[in-house]
Amino acid sequence: xxxxxxxxxxxxxxxxxxxxxxxxxxxxxxxxxxxxxxxxxxxxxxxxxxxxxxxxxxxxxxxxxxxxxxxxxxxxxxxxxxxxxxxxxxxxxxxxxxxxxxxxxxxxxxxxxxxxxxxxxxxxxxxxxxxxxxxxxxxxxxxxxxxxxxxxxxxxxxxxxxxxxxxxxxxxxxxxxxxxxxxxxxxxxxxxxxxxxxxxxxxxxxxxxxxxxxxxxxxxxxxxxxxxxxxxxxxxxxxxxxxxxxxxxxxxxxxxxxxxxxxxxxxxxxxxxxxxxxxxxxxxxxxxxxxxxxxxxxxxxxxxxxxxxx
Length: 310
Prior knowledge:
Layout: H1 2-10, H2 30-53, E1 73-76, H3 80-97, E2 110-115, H4 118-125, H5 139-146, E3 154-164, E4 178-181, E5 184-187, E6 201-213, H6 222-234, H7 266-277, H8 285-300
Helix pairs in contact: 2-8, 3-6, 7-8
């Protein structure tokens, strides 16, 4: 440094010297710019993923439903050993997402049924008990579940009930979270919260019914089916959701066997975690989830591991 100063002093006064390069506040290195671009790309992908996965019009302007009560799993249609595997895996995924799992002897509220002809099974099961399914969206929704207009590998049904923003169940006179008048169900909320950023009340699952067609012409392994059932049963996700090129178990029925995820991916696990860690009463719940997902993916991406792969 002293040599440079001495040289500068010794220069003739009339000698022209090169002007110093312009200073810039942006000191980012190419590597930092690349990382920032990747982070932004992940954020956009997370917002798209959440928007597409939660596009059910039933809850478009409501809180995203989730399990506020303990979940009690039941698996039917499998040999004993496979059934025990499925129960264990479902409980594992639920606990990892922050869902409470009820102890043995509980009252079942989350059913996963494997059947080669689920349509016939459902028609017999609900022939005299169709009221077990919410009719809030009308009978066409019930009919579509019982007899879909196109073949489906997986069908999902949820019943929901209202809760206060603090997590307390709300007693309602109608089946659809409303009041009955002249045999018509009118939505009524007696909750009040003086904020445009918080909802008065929220919705939570009281029943999940996941039906898997074992005769569906697509090579899918049991572990993949169980993980798929866990995802669509723990969250209200359309089985027709188009998540683009985002790695997700939701894509297995549109992919070749060598392209399918072996189980829940980082994105799927991050989605469930974000749902159960978000503020359910917040109007910006979806944005909270997307930010949480993008953070988790950005942290875990260097490892490139699947959360539930086998």
